[in-house]
Amino acid sequence: MSTLSPQTRAKLETVSVATLCTALFKCGLRNQLIQDVRPLNPAGRNMVGEAFTLRYIPAREDLNPIGVFQNPAHPQRKAVEDCPAGAVLVIDSRKDARAASAGAILVARLMVRGVAGIVTDGGFRDSAEIARLDIPAYHHRSSAPTNLTRHQALDINVPIGCGDAPVFPGDVVVGDAEGVVVIPAEIAEAIADEAVEMTAFEDFVSEEVLKGRTIIGLYPPTNPQAQSDFAAWRKAKGR
Amino acid sequence: MSTLSPQTRAKLETVSVATLCTALFKCGLRNQLIQDVRPLNPAGRNMVGEAFTLRYIPAREDLNPIGVFQNPAHPQRKAVEDCPAGAVLVIDSRKDARAASAGAILVARLMVRGVAGIVTDGGFRDSAEIARLDIPAYHHRSSAPTNLTRHQALDINVPIGCGDAPVFPGDVVVGDAEGVVVIPAEIAEAIADEAVEMTAFEDFVSEEVLKGRTIIGLYPPTNPQAQSDFAAWRKAKGR
Amino acid sequence: MSTLSPQTRAKLETVSVATLCTALFKCGLRNQLIQDVRPLNPAGRNMVGEAFTLRYIPAREDLNPIGVFQNPAHPQRKAVEDCPAGAVLVIDSRKDARAASAGAILVARLMVRGVAGIVTDGGFRDSAEIARLDIPAYHHRSSAPTNLTRHQALDINVPIGCGDAPVFPGDVVVGDAEGVVVIPAEIAEAIADEAVEMTAFEDFVSEEVLKGRTIIGLYPPTNPQAQSDFAAWRKAKGR
Amino acid sequence: MSTLSPQTRAKLETVSVATLCTALFKCGLRNQLIQDVRPLNPAGRNMVGEAFTLRYIPAREDLNPIGVFQNPAHPQRKAVEDCPAGAVLVIDSRKDARAASAGAILVARLMVRGVAGIVTDGGFRDSAEIARLDIPAYHHRSSAPTNLTRHQALDINVPIGCGDAPVFPGDVVVGDAEGVVVIPAEIAEAIADEAVEMTAFEDFVSEEVLKGRTIIGLYPPTNPQAQSDFAAWRKAKGR
Amino acid sequence: MSTLSPQTRAKLETVSVATLCTALFKCGLRNQLIQDVRPLNPAGRNMVGEAFTLRYIPAREDLNPIGVFQNPAHPQRKAVEDCPAGAVLVIDSRKDARAASAGAILVARLMVRGVAGIVTDGGFRDSAEIARLDIPAYHHRSSAPTNLTRHQALDINVPIGCGDAPVFPGDVVVGDAEGVVVIPAEIAEAIADEAVEMTAFEDFVSEEVLKGRTIIGLYPPTNPQAQSDFAAWRKAKGR
Amino acid sequence: MSTLSPQTRAKLETVSVATLCTALFKCGLRNQLIQDVRPLNPAGRNMVGEAFTLRYIPAREDLNPIGVFQNPAHPQRKAVEDCPAGAVLVIDSRKDARAASAGAILVARLMVRGVAGIVTDGGFRDSAEIARLDIPAYHHRSSAPTNLTRHQALDINVPIGCGDAPVFPGDVVVGDAEGVVVIPAEIAEAIADEAVEMTAFEDFVSEEVLKGRTIIGLYPPTNPQAQSDFAAWRKAKGR
Questions:
Q1: Where are the beta strands (DSSP E) in A100-159?
Q2: Looking at CA atoms only, how far is residue C113 from chain A in angstroms?
Q3: Largest alpha-carbon pair distance within chain C?
Q4: Which of B215, E105, E131, F104 is deepest in the core (most CB within 10 A)?
């Protein structure tokens, strides 16, 4: 059963991956960013969902002829049909973008099924088509060669590494224009709350800085004036 | 004499590099993608042409003062004047983008001469200008330093490596928004035919998936219903 | 006191980083490009200013809790307040983009203070916001994790390395759509003059090439006709 | 039950990893070498055994305090006790040698238990001590930091990648002074037979070459004289 | 004044870098190993001393002709004469081993002056000669080109990064056959004490394991029997 | 005809690669070291000879079945038979050590033929056997997979890159325990002379340093006393 409440999901849609990384840093978690992936489609909204994982290992030629996809239980195809609506499919491609992790047809199927997004630390083929689909997708770089050239899909929904980050099934995955972060399920609500608070403060600071105020004493608010200004701002803004 | 017929060229303009990679994979060719290059100008049309190659070696300082370009037989300049119209100039820069493979003036000259495109596994200088020219160009990343800083142009139209792919003069080079693939001359026609067939099927599948159909049994079409639906679709579409 | 005159600054706003690299190459300086950084905001104008530097070392966990920013003398925050208007803040992040070199609030403060630009060989967080600010910013790639995760700001305005280039305080830093180059202060005026001359010639050549003229004899102008045509062009254009 | 017969094991002890790679290449398997690992102890004998695998993912700080080893079911410790005598423990460390895959105490325990060897695509701590143990061990480079710094042991005896090679439990793993190769279980006997034949021929060729004979016609034996000389040599040597 | 007492130095000579890394890990310090350096001379004894640092930046050609060494205040030469006896000279070479950090003459001078060792995250020239000197030296790999080719010595005894580890002047540096670790000065004594304790336990465990005892319950000693056996062992050994 | 006189060869046998790099640096040549190769057999003597080159490109599967070696004109086999006695075979393997550049049988044939050495920027298979042969061999790392897995031998005795250095046929190649340097043929004699002089001075300095003398004023000899001491030393030593 899902551990991600609609309330937490809604909060996570309003905060940045950078702010979430800082909130995780305060908890001693320094490696939760999926390093070196970027969005194909710079959407306006955040990707938020629980991790559903797929693990690839290096392809052995005799086990990966083009015919393997005729098996309806092939893990790549099965993952695309089984990933729950609202979840994010996260693929461990061992940071190898020399062959595709998936292509536009599979990503379209995920979109139609209501999946919240897809992430690989390798690359997608048909990247221009994927960029036009209405589902957030993140990869390292485009990769035209068919999946079977380098990857064998092996396991569904086991803990994996993706972009040097640990990803456990059910962790909460959030992506924005900058990247993707993995929040342990147990602390997702607390991190979301903390990030909402931090975002309010950063929005206040941004406004002040653009008006010409120095960051010293303001960011962080070591000057009591900054604290009272922020309190007034929150009241005025209703945040 | 060219081995690339107008018919094959026309077919290759309608299919994706990803599809071509899969067709090559079926023939046992797994390394024909020029890895990790991207288009400077995201054109609407494919780049298609026979490979005309240029080989660089590391620059030795005493052999590469700025004056070398005064020699009209300098291989870089000669290649730009000799590359046939309709061909693609492919440069082996040893995956070294720390100095430019070429700049906007040379690329403009290629465009004016009717060359079909240019590819390097290094980088171009004047990349913003090149992006505005009407000739497809692919590189790893922008690179402002003059060519002579790292590269000595040496050979014209010999077999080379480019982005870890083997490139023989006359091979058929195809590029789209995603990357560049090298098709051995001898099989270009067969690969083009296969890719046209595959594209028809993938277009059918994409439509079905967007309508909500599962990929199981459809992609690949292990379900006889999928096969008959595809036959009907082809008939209706005239493909 | 500034060594960069308004005249030199104006000239440097009209020439490309690529042309400056060639002018430096002619002086025996081959490594002045900050390798592998790109602009977040593809502005229409060049970034020009004297280098004001900030040096990071790897973060030691006990010295870099979130609380360090409460110190108004923290070097990162101090650099942002001290970097002179018209200067460029250049950060040595040891080419490590796994954590942010800075974020949008600090970059906004630099903008408001009239700083000419910011460069890191690591990455910025809040990169989408920075891209919307009216100040040129260059990095290797986006990086959401807070600065303290990997970096400790240590020194202000000492000589540094950035992207494999040496950067001395007061060197003249120029950035365009392609990248960033570092010109030693002592030769900035001479390099600017040389680049203006080269740019006039390259603009002439580009026009000729687009009209269909061969590059042989024209680029470089070993054909006397090319030289006299260029003289006529300059006269006509008043350059 | 073991698929590796004593006869096959004995054959594999007499042939080189390089010869086995060529035999696998003839079967279309090009990626079975565990890339970029080397022996800590240059033993006189080959390491031969069936793969018993251990999978690591990136460590999450809260899940990997020093206390985790108090759990007798911790997968790293369990693998060391469960790996069968005569097998080879192969660890997927995601090619990350920044923290140790294991140390001398665990390797000593494997040795005492009769395990045939240990391989990681990361690094071992206590490498000087491991080098003095009588058990073959292979890694990328020495790595002093404790395992928990970067790795979380997760799975035992599942298919993994190691040094870009696919490794399935039960595959036959062979190591010599040069490296480690993975032979699919189903073809281990055939590959061993082929390699024994190839080794006889290569030993003959080596002797001939050292006597001064040209390689043309000899290696491969396109000259019938070479074939009859080899037949005579085999008879004389009893091989 | 030195913060490293003879007692602490003596203790650090008896423990391994791996054990020190674990002791530091328990304090929350995960990045104190100088990554990817190795000893040129596999000495029997540990290198122990306080860090005296030297910082290099990328060489600018005009500032680094061969004549710079005629200046007796050149930072590289000055560092060699100023590094205190008993200290370790640690060089920040930005992990660039394409040119030498130093050569045999300078290392010999350090040896004669009683310096405890030298470390670079780049490479040494004259590495075969350095390997015969009686002073521990660590680098990434051999590098014949003169220092000036890539490096400009800039600063003496400032905080630096070396092999991704932070190094502050006065930190205690320990090297063994496996690598080099940096212990913050303030905790050097405590870490030394902890490591001596851990070493006693690990020596006990090693003996037991070699006698055939399982690691479960022993390492760590969750079985009370293991604890009482260790107490008896310590008594018997006088440790 | 050879440009390398017996006198120059003899001189080059007595000096180090590091000293040669410095002599080349003085001539403005900064990139003549073959980066990141090491000797398999740490011989007592230098490798010296003129470059005879072999160029590899990435292997295309259909062109590189095991049968290609049956062709006596295969460039790899031909190079081994054609490389002149006294020359050094230098292979451009594009810094790709994932498959072998050559194996022990070919290297043995080169040895028997009187070839002076072999260098690749990739790796050798049968490395333990090669290490026992009486011919200097340099590579990046051991590589068991057969050549055909990644490489297609293409050209003999054309200019190449090897380890980021330019190598022209006939250049003089020198290797010692540390690495391999490439001296342009035209300046080989002058560089040899310069290096012999430098070696005499460095031997004098080493002796003085080991006696306890400071390097300031001695290395370089800015103190006139150092110059007169060196003159006396030369006289006494007859150098």
A1: 100-102, 117-120, 123-124, 137-139, 151-156
A2: 8
A3: 70
A4: F104
Name the residue with tokens 């990769």. Answer: A143
Beta bridge partners of residue F174, listed in sequence order: F48, F181
Q: How many residues does the structure list for chain C?
A: 239
Lookup: tokens for B236: 């209706």
Q: Evaluate whether A219 touches A201 at the Cβ level (below 8 Å).
A: no
Burial track C78-114 (b if 16+ CB lie within 10 A, e otherwise)? bbbeebeebbbbbbbbbbbbbbbbbbbbbbbbbbbbe
Cis amide linkage into residue B58, ω under 30° from 0: no
Question: Token pair of A6, please?
Answer: 């609609």
What are the beta bridge partners of residue B176? none
Q: Are C21 and C33 in contact (CB under 8 A)?
A: yes
Report H helices in A72-187. Answer: 75-82, 104-112, 127-132
Find the CB nearest D144 among E21, E210, E214.
E21
Using the predicted structure, report yes or no on whether residue C141 has a pLDDT greater than 60. Answer: yes
Neighbouring chains of A at 3+ CB pairs within 8 Å? B, C, D
**Could C177 and B109 be called an inter-chain contact, meaning their C-beta atoms sit closer than 8 Å?**
no
DSSP state, C62?
G
Amino acid making up residue E52 = F
Query: How confident is the model at residue A2, as a pLDDT?
Result: 63
Question: Would you mind telling me the total number of residues written for chain E in this entry?
Answer: 239
Burial class (CB in 10 A: 0-12, 13-18, 19+), F27: middle
Q: Do C178 and B72 touch (CB under 8 A)?
A: no
Yes or no, beta carbons of C62 and E27 under 8 Å apart: yes
If one counts every other C-beta atom within 10 angstroms of the C-beta of residue B214, the result is 17
Distance of alpha carbon D159 from alpha carbon D168, whole angstroms: 4
Buried/exposed code over E181-218 (b: 16+ C-beta within 10 A; e: otherwise): bbbbbebbbebbebbbebbbbbebbbebbeeebbbbbb
**Which amino acid is residue C122, in one-letter code?**
G
Digitized pLDDT (tens) for each residue of chain B, 239 residues in all? 467 999 999 999 999 999 999 999 999 999 999 999 999 987 678 999 999 999 999 999 999 999 999 999 999 999 999 999 999 999 999 999 999 999 999 999 999 999 999 999 999 999 999 999 999 999 999 999 999 999 999 999 999 999 999 999 999 999 999 999 999 999 999 999 999 999 999 999 999 999 999 999 999 999 999 999 999 999 999 99
Crossing angle between the packed helical segments B104-112 and C188-211, to the nearest 10 degrees? 0
- Tell me whether chains C and D touch (3+ CB pairs under 8 A): no
Any idea which of C123-137, D181-195, E36-50, F213-227 has the lowest mean pLDDT? E36-50
Please name the residue of chain B whose CA is at the shortest distance from the CA of residue C42: B128
**Alpha helices (H) in A48-187, listed in sequence order:** 75-82, 104-112, 127-132
DSSP result, E153-168: EEEESS-EEETTEEE-
Q: Is A118 helix (H, G, I), strand (E, B) or coil?
A: strand
What is the per-residue pLDDT across F45-59, written as a single tens digit (0 to 9) for each? Answer: 899 999 999 999 999
Interface of D with E in 216-235 (CB under 8 A): none
Report the predicted TM-score, pTM, of the whole model to 2 decimal places. 0.98
**A176 in contact with C, Cβ within 8 Å:** yes
pLDDT, tens only, D51-100? 999 999 999 999 999 999 999 999 999 999 999 999 999 999 999 999 99
Q: How far apart are CA A94 and CA D93, in angstroms?
A: 11
CA A122 to CA A92: how far, in whole Å? 8
Q: Crossing angle for the helix pair D188-211 and D224-237, nearest 10 degrees?
A: 110
Neighbours of chain B (3+ CB pairs under 8 A): A, C, F
**Residue whose tokens read 């092999």:** E163
